[in-house]
Amino acid sequence: MELSTVLIITALFLVFRFVQSQRAARTPMPSHGKVADIDNDVIFKALVHAGPAVVDFYATWCGPCRAVAPKVGELSEKYENVRFVSVDVDKLRGVATQFNITAMPTFVIMKDGAEVERVRGADIRALEAGIQKVAA
């Protein structure tokens, strides 16, 4: 096989993979449990300033975010007195910047508008431990 043929096949493969990844990135996150997906900063502020809340900062292109979403949904069903909201960091960049979000998923556990704890990554045990602190 000639070198030019190998290069063309390789280029076509890379273009195909890129197109697949872009399609996946545009697919919205499915909702789970009682998690409200927030796309407005005013609504976000209103929801997290009263009582206990868990904020899930995610990105649609983030594999770990997609993997952990069903478990977060289960926690939202279990802890009914805690408000669960999710924020797409690409849509609400100002909110993500305000909270210094540098990795996804990041969970910010709040009570009455104040941050109580922060969990970076898909660590469900650490997340539930933090939730228990504000749910009591």
UniProtKB/TrEMBL annotation:
Domain Thioredoxin: start-end pairs: 23-136
A Pfam family that the UniProt record links to this protein: Thioredoxin
Family annotation (Gene3D superfamilies): Glutaredoxin
Residues spanning the signal sequence: 1-21
Protein name per Swiss-Prot or TrEMBL: Thioredoxin
InterPro entries xrefs: Thioredoxin-like_sf, Thioredoxin_CS, Thioredoxin_domain
Domain of life, source organism: Eukaryota
Family the entry assigns: Belongs to the thioredoxin family.
Keyword tags: Disulfide bond, Signal
